[in-house]
């Protein structure tokens, strides 16, 4: 579903944000992409979602070549950014239908697709509310609905639960697992090790633009370490340097 070979990004400033990344994600997996601040996660996500051009390497994303056919990649992937996609003012149901129509669905189908997504994400009945009226957890679920409206094979989730209370986080994890059960492959970043532990089939840790460890949560925790201890051993830093864990 996702393979990169030597994927690299050097910015004009000279900053080598990503240095020769080899990634592999199988269909149906939830893979967590973790690293300390400045490790290169966002740069990688932006390359894999076609928003930033790599300076070296190659990648196949959802069955298409990232460099030669980014349009085909875009049709097959969903991307839920940290910042969300909701208008604060317009009724969220209308926004979702519009998004579906932008992907080429006729109005009736767009309506049906939106209704299905809202039901799956437990948002039915909130269609008429503006984005501003939603709680943080509801807003994130709407963001995910936006990312899913064209039924992508591969969904990129950038810090899906940052800023949410524990109950909303746990609820969102249930929805992410349900997506995988429905056949969607998920590649996510998070600043929470408990989230990676609870959700991910596999974790890839990067630091200084390179993969420094990968494995299932159980493999990374071998030797009786917690995932926090493993992360600290591997990178010499905690996952959230700027904020208390
Ligand atoms: N547009 C840019 N121009 C120059 N350097 C950049 C640019 N974007 C990112 N960088 C640098 O590339 C490196 C990786 O940044 P990136 O944002 O990918 O890290 P990150 O792992 O997402 O960090 P965080 O967890 O803090 O969001 C950093 O050193 C950053 O300063």
Automatic annotation (TrEMBL):
Membrane topology: Peripheral membrane protein
Keyword terms: Antibiotic resistance, ATP-binding, Nucleotide-binding, Transport
Location in the cell: Cell membrane
InterPro entries registered for this protein in UniProt: AAA+_ATPase, ABC_transporter-like_ATP-bd, ABC_transporter_ATP-binding, P-loop_NTPase
GO terms of molecular function: ATP binding
The UniProt record lists the keyword Transmembrane helix: no
One Pfam family here: ABC_tran
Stretches assigned to the ABC transporter domain: 2-233
Family named by the database record: Belongs to the ABC transporter superfamily.
Name of the protein this chain belongs to: ABC transporter ATP-binding protein
Organism in which the protein naturally occurs: Nonomuraea typhae
Organism lineage string: Bacteria, Bacillati, Actinomycetota, Actinomycetes, Streptosporangiales
